[in-house]
Amino acid sequence: MVNIKNTVCLLGVASLGTSVAVGTTKFDVDAVAWKMTEFCINYYTIGFGDTCWDIISRNQNKFTMRQLLCWNTDINPWCSNLIPGRQVCIGVDVPGPVC
C-alpha cells in the first residue's frame, strides 16, 4: 500500500507575531481515487490529453459512454475532469451495475 504524506501548514500574520502549528495528515491513495463501482475488474490509467471518447476507442469500443460514466460516478457528464495518472473502471464483473 502506498501512502502519501500531505502536509498542511497555516502561518499567522507576521505583523501580529502569531503562528499556527503545522499539522501532518497521511491518507491512502485509494481514498482519493475515483468513485467507481465495486464490480470493476478492468482498469485504464488516464493519459495526458485523454478524453472519454479516447478511453472508449483505445479499448476497442467494448463499452459505451453511458457505461463509462455509470461505472465511474466521479466523472462529470462532459468528461472535463479527467486527471492523468488516475485509473478509471472500463469493465465490470457480471452481474454488474445496471447502466
TrEMBL record:
Q: Which UniProt keywords apply?
A: Signal
Superkingdom of origin: Eukaryota
**Per its UniProt record, what Pfam families does this chain match?**
LysM
Leader sequence residues: 1-23
Q: Where is the LysM domain?
A: 42-90
Q: Note the PROSITE patterns from the entry.
A: LYSM
Tell me which SUPFAM superfamilies the record gives.
Answer: LysM domain (SSF54106)
Protein name from the UniProt record = LysM domain-containing protein
